[in-house]
Design brief:
Blueprint lengths: L1 H6 L1 H15 L3 H7 L4 H29 L1
Helix pairs in contact: 2-4
Length: 67
């Protein structure tokens, strides 16, 4: 699992979050099952969320400029 975590942590955070949202699996069960720690998950969830927010703002800004 270490290589997958290093390669694309945002995807792993998305998987953990989707398990919670779509299937009701507690975060702790998912991140423990995938072999990552709670601090790792929290760090990347916060980082991923900030980047998603920046991406959405950038896309919205670009859309307004082109219309």
């Amino acid at each position: 699992m270490g290589e997958a975590v290093a390669a694309c942590p945002a995807a792993l955070v998305g998987l953990i979050s989707d398990n919670k949202t779509e299937h009701g699996v507690p975060y702790a069960d998912s991140y423990r099952g995938l072999g990552v720690s709670q601090p790792w998950f929290r760090k990347w969830r916060e980082t991923s969320g900030e980047q998603d927010s920046v991406d959405r703002r950038s896309a919205a800004s670009h859309s307004l400029q082109t219309h």
